[in-house]
């Protein structure tokens, strides 16, 4: 069954920009609503929790960067 819907121009352009080659608009919309974003969680966590999560993510990133620098020094 086909349905006709009206979209604001800016929303249409956003969907069109997300459209992959060979994909219909229906496929694109399905793809967009199936792939949840972290933005979907913006009202779930408070600022303190978000800061704590950022800190937990940041520590391994800094450790990895340090290890890469050390490894690079060995090959200089």
The SSE order reads: HHH
Helix content bin: 55-70%
Distance between the termini: 64 Å
Largest sheet: none
Instruction: Please work out how many helical segments DSSP would assign.
Output: 3
Q: Helix- and strand-based class?
A: mainly alpha
From the alpha-carbon coordinates, what is the Rg to the nearest angstrom?
Answer: 21 Å
Rounded mean pLDDT is: 82
- Tell me the overall shape: elongated
Q: Using DSSP, what is the number of strands? A: 0
Proportion of residues in extended strands: under 5%
**Regions with little confidence, pLDDT below 50 for 5+ residues:** none
Structure report:
- By secondary structure, the protein is an all-alpha fold.
- Helices cover 63% and strands 0% of the residues.
- The chain has three helices and no strands.
- The model has no long low-confidence stretch (mean pLDDT 82).
Give a quick rundown of the structure.
By secondary structure, this protein is mainly α.
Task: Give the arrangement of secondary structure elements.
Blueprint: H1 9-18, H2 25-34, H3 47-74
Comma- or semicolon-separated keywords:
mainly alpha, 76 residues, 3 helices, 63% helix, single chain
């Amino acid at each position: 069954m086909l349905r006709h819907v009206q979209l604001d121009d800016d929303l249409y352009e956003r969907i069109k920009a997300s459209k992959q080659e060979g994909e219909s608009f229906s496929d694109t919309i399905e793809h967009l609503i199936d792939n949840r974003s972290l933005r979907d969680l913006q009202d779930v966590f408070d600022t303190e929790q978000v800061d704590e999560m950022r800190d937990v993510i940041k520590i391994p990133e800094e450790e990895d960067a340090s290890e890469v620098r050390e490894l690079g020094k060995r090959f200089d």
